[in-house]
Known about the structure:
Elements (H helix, E strand, L loop, with lengths): L6 H13 L2 H8 L3 H15 L4 E4 L2 E4 L1 H30 L2 E5 L2 H18 L4 E5 L4 H5 L5 E4 L9 E14 L2 H8 L6 E6 L5 H9 L5 E7 L2 H9 L5 E4 H9 L10 E12 L4 H15 L1
Parallel strand pairs: 3-4, 3-5, 7-8
Antiparallel strand pairs: 1-2, 5-10, 6-9, 6-10
Helix pairs in contact: 1-2, 1-3, 1-4, 2-3, 5-10
Amino acid sequence: MRKIPPLNALKIFDIAARYKSFSSAASENHMTKGAISQQIKILENWFGFELFNRSANGIELTDNGSKLMKTCNLAFSVIEKQCEDLRKKSHTHNEIIIGCSSSLLSYWFLPKLYSFFSTDKQFVLNYNSQASFQSIINGEVDFFISGEKISNYNFVDCELLHKDEIGLVCSVEYRTKIFNNDIRDITLLRSQSRYSAWDEWSYLSNIILNVSDEIIFDKLSLALDAVKLNLGVTIAPKFVVENDINKGLLYAPFGFLNCSSGTYLYTRNNLSNDKKIIIDKIINKVKS
């Protein structure tokens, strides 16, 4: 049996010492001031000396009280950190962290997964739109989806989800203006993540359109938002925009063409079997 004073009394002392007030300690612990004083008295009787100097102006720590306060601060900080680490670890097995660009999240992942995970509560999905391939190497995400083909590592499995089909997309209103010759030149909305998509599409389609202006966005999702505002056209993969096309929010006047790029899934192969099963369900859902 450990030779330490009652832990509840130590906790009360720690709060009272920090506030230098029995009243504030009582308020934080939802106790009466008399109950706080009683806990402090229990502690003082255990030590055999006073921890506070009491006066009409309030309370002040004695020298021994100050020493005990430092010990309590250190001990409770260690306990608090260890408990928080354990709490996080206890939730980790129920969490799957997905590394994926914001464009893929907004236009592909979330629309397909919402109905699936509204009924399946076995795991909690967390998304990291700032993730990179390094994130999966560091263990910061469980799997990573990217349009970039990266050489395999021994502990990372790579799977081609599908070859991309790309096409020019615009708003219905913008399309009408183009085909009615209301505008002679188009504004091209490029994204940094798929900057060369326009050049590849122009080559594959053999369609010549006069670009009078360019606006560059750091993400495809921002370029697509600008398309919906009738600011111009962009090139996007079919699987990213097909939901919005079906809803009439976007239009692909020239259809889609197979291209050289693809979308790849990178998964850590040291995941638990439970996580692997759920990830398989996720991938099958988004591929459907």
